[in-house]
Amino acid sequence: MTQAEKLQGIPLSGEYEEIIFDLPEPWRAQTWNYVKFTMTDGTVWCGEFREKQDSGFLLSELPDIGIACVVSGGHGYIIDINKKEKIKDLDTEPIIDIYADRVTNTLYVSSYWDIHLIDNELNEIDLPIPIGCDGIFFKGANGRILNLEIEEIGADMTKNIEYQIDLNERKIKKNAV
């Protein structure tokens, strides 16, 4: 059951209970993103998330444990859907992609230059990358292998698809040829 859904704009006033999730540090803009959450008892509420910068609006969830990760303008918020509260602000920034591993109830977040695993205790664990990066994107899983597209540092901005994350071992590896 989907517990989190991106909204394309401000919800109608009074349509849902609205809870504001703000940045933990000073902010520069009044740009917000909205997510409709459904609790396990069917109660629906809306989270409002301030953007930190202009790098997108992403949403991923771990429905078995009632947790969602909302990325608003590069800043990551971990939300407990049933308690209607923020559990954690992620340190990794700016986040440009996210992947939920529903088998292990963990999250992977990427920035332009690194990837972090968010484990079951919400620790952010750096996964070493063997090349210099200027953008890392998750390109779908094939079984327990998560494919990566890495924009390499350099003037020609080449896209490297030779790496993947082994979701069982939680390591970045070069594709087997």
Q: Any overview of this molecule?
A:
With 177 residues, this protein is mainly β. Helix content is 0%, strand content 52%. It has strands spanning 4-7, 17-21, 32-38, 44-50, 57-62, 67-72, 75-80, 85-89, 97-101, 106-110, 115-118, 124-127, 133-142, 145-152, 159-160, 163-166, 171-174. Strands 13, 14, 15, 16 and 17 form a 5-stranded antiparallel beta sheet that branches. A 4-stranded mixed beta sheet has the order 1-3-4-2, with no helix packed on it. Strands 5-6-7-8 form a 4-stranded antiparallel beta sheet, with no helix packed on it. The protein is globular. The protein starts with a strand and ends with a strand.
Give structural attributes:
177 residues, five-stranded antiparallel β-sheet, four-stranded mixed β-sheet, 0% helix, globular
Shape: globular
Topology as a string of helices (H) and strands (E)? EEEEEEEEEEEEEEEEE
Helix percentage range: under 10%
CA-based gyration radius? 17 Å
Contiguous uncertain segments of 5+ residues: none
Summarize the structure.
The chain is mainly β. Helix content is 0%, strand content 52%. The strands form 4 sheets. Strands 13, 14, 15, 16 and 17 form a 5-stranded antiparallel β-sheet that branches. Strands 1-3-4-2 form a 4-stranded mixed β-sheet, with no helix packed on it. It has a 4-stranded antiparallel β-sheet with strand order 5-6-7-8, with no helix packed on it.
